[in-house]
Amino acid sequence: MNVSISPFEVAQEPEGLKNLRSKAWNVYTQAQFPDRASTLWRFSNPEAFWVIPENISSILEKGKIAYRLEAPNELRLSDLQEAVSNESVPVGALVGPEFGKFEALNLALWKKGAYLRVPEGVRLDQPVVLRKHISGEGLILDRSLIHVSKGASLTIVEVLEGELAGNGNGYLNAVEEVLIEEGAALTLVGIDLTQGKTRAFVTVRHSIGSNAELKWVLARFGEGSSKANLGARLAGRGAKSGIYGAVFGFGQGKSDIHTFHDHAVKRTFSNIDLRVVLQDQAHSAYTGLIRIDTDAGCSEAFQENRNLLLSGGVRAESIPELEILTDEVQCKHGVTVGPVEEEPLFYLMSRGVPREDAVRLLVVGFLEPVLGHIPGDFRKPLDGLVANLINPASEIESPL
Amino acid sequence: MRQPVKDIMVGDDYASKFGFSSPEEYYFRAPKKGLSHELVEMMSKMKKEPDWMREFRHKALDTFWAKPMPTWGNQEALGRIDFDDIYYYIKPIEQMGQTWDDVPEDIKHTFERLGIPEAERKFLSGVSAQYESETVYHSIRDEISKLGVIFLGMDSGLMEHEDIVRRFFGTLIPPTDNKFAALNSAVWSGGSFIYVPPGVHVDIPLQAYFRINAKNMGQFERTLIIADKGARVHYIEGCTAPVYSSSSLHSAVVELIALEDAYIRYTTIQNWSNNIYNLVTKRAIAYKNATVEWVDGNIGSMLTMKYPCVVLAGENARGEILSVAFGGTGQHQDAGAKVFHMAPRTSSTITSKSISKGGGRTTYRGWVKTTANAEDVRVSVKCDALILDPTSRSDTYPTMEIGNPKVRIEHEASVSKLSDDQLFYLMSRGLSENESRVLIVNGFIEQFVKELPMEYAVELNRLIELEMEGSVG
Hints:
The structure holds two protein chains of two kinds. By secondary structure, chain A is α/β, with parallel strands linked by helices. In chain A, 20% of the residues lie in helices and 41% in strands. Chain A has one domain (15-338). In chain A, the strands form two sheets. Chain A has a nine-stranded mixed beta sheet, covered by helices on one side. Chain A has a nine-stranded mixed beta sheet with strand order 2-3-5-7-9-11-13-15-17. The longest helix of chain A has 17 residues, at 355-371. The radius of gyration of chain A is 21 Å and the shape is globular. By secondary structure, chain B is α/β, with parallel strands linked by helices. Chain B has a domain at 21-306. Chain B has 14 helices and 24 strands. In chain B, the strands form three sheets. In chain B, strands 5, 6, 8, 9, 11, 12, 14, 16, 17, 19, 21 and 23 form a twelve-stranded mixed beta sheet that branches. Chain B starts with 13 loop residues before the first helix and ends in a 10-residue tail after the last helix. Mean pLDDT of chain B is 88; it is low at 465-473. Chain A binds chain B through residues 35, 37-39, 278, 294, 297, 307, 309-312, 314-339, 396-400, and chain B through 71-72, 375-378, 385, 387-417.
């Protein structure tokens, strides 16, 4: 294979990272496009995320991202690049150069990034807020690394705001790596409030150590399009992971979410509850894989995907997959797709609630099991947002 | 005296019961292995086929060569298929038999050992027996044929009812559908052709039995069943082969057409030996108010890839797919179901049960799609898998694509080992562990077994060695 050199000057960085970058650049420029027959790319065209190498520098300068952390003094947000030069930071450990073609683009060329290290044993009651603000147009490479050390426990709320103008072939390419060490507990709340037709390609990987726990809550309300690959590796005994997702798609919005729970060792536990509400011409595709490895007996894995369809032009796709390589397991998944149920509507209306309000109530209630995990201050505005987004006029009747 | 219950072992006695072989003496065998246009030409000539069919075959062969192998599924096993090491056409005898006495001794003996003539006397409306590439025996009860029911080998069907065959053949599964459908279209031979006239109910099942005897053989039967308006029919197929170390390929194409108000049930008990690739395309179309049911048992073969499909094309049409797969040592059962809802008020149910054991692997792969005009659709999908030991594997790959909001779609799947609670309960009542395991597995597949005709239910239980021999007491 020809080793082409990345066209960008990289600051004084450790040799290891330079090597990773050049490997990743090779993968981006040389690797074949992903196979559309594979479930991961069935509902999104990979070519939409390809930027011709010659054009990258021109559009990379036009997109901006700013990071801000609201946290007590003991936590400090560092620039990922500075951190890499000063201490040993495992960039690329979870999403490395071979991960995928478009993740490789991120690894090869990211410049600014967020690095948050939570020291051993730190326990915070109040949520820490990490805000990411995007603006401009073109391509944004966002790279974050969160390292929760042994026994630490906290809630991080990550809010993505702003708007990326959709002209040209630019988009937000975000990669996040999260290490959760032994006995740590992380509640990670990701709220996507981007405006307009922002296009995003998001990859997140967690590694969860023994007896550590991840609770991951995602809320995404928008008419932009996003392809997200969200995964957690249950790497230590007793590791737990719960993913709770709420998606509200409207307009021409498109959400293509893939989740991956990788049970690598014994006695691990995972749960997924993804709730999707679709309106107008919105489109949701969900593909989820649970893999329980040969040596990962005595594990439990659950996965649920519910889809609520509010109007005629929507489309919902769901592929919940299981690969179970051993016997001592409990594994279940379920999918439902349908409109708002007639019976509870009737119940509410018989008590004098107008139909439109009843629909709003039921939709908010449908999302409650997910949104209920979000800390109060962040939760309330979301309820209002959902209620405002619902357009009961477009509602259709249940077939039953 | 209580005797010990044998462990759950599918195919343990396969070699003695089904795995025997007869001498490979044939009326005609393709002069060499491998595929060519000459072979297709020769087959078509020997069968005295009309020109359109000959051209259909040639075109399909080109399609086969042009199509890539599937990029999904068990790549390792698929990669081992050597298309040049297969005899594509073996004609065992010159003339098909109308009575068992017409069938040569060797072949008759084979089917007797498999219990076919006996079953025919007892339970069936008609029987077709295929040996290698050709139907060697065929009969239908007089009272059924008097109703106008046509039940023939596919080759005879083409000769005698060319108009019906030409209208429907390859319409549901064109050669371009997939590589193996193309292969079948090029070299198909044998299979069944059934036509049930309007309003006729065939209450007793029709059966076909498929046997591969030769080594390195490819069997490519082609079945077409048409149930005219308001007709009902139940068709059963069974399959076995001798145990050889070299592999054989079975690649069938089955098309079912249920016109308005018709009902078709298609039951398969596939028990190929563990050297057979079973790569089959099965598809049905159900028009207004029609019902199609696939009852699909996959016990044998090395690799099965089979996804029976129902296209619900008319209002109120209904599809049901009920399947059981058993993946033992060296086996991969990659089976599933597909349903396309293309009309309003259609409904479907998919129930899949799988058991893997001894390092075996079972896969459920399904696809449910509703189009934008398909309102008031109901779908229920349920997949349950049992894994009996730590080295076995189970996968579930369902796909749901919903294009209309006025639907009710439910999908559920579970994978687990035998429940300790259930085992404990049974053992606390004095059953041995093994007896308890057998009972639980039996209960797990009961929903499937009870859909089979009585003698098949018995046969299946025997296959899975679930009899509680001498355990009364």
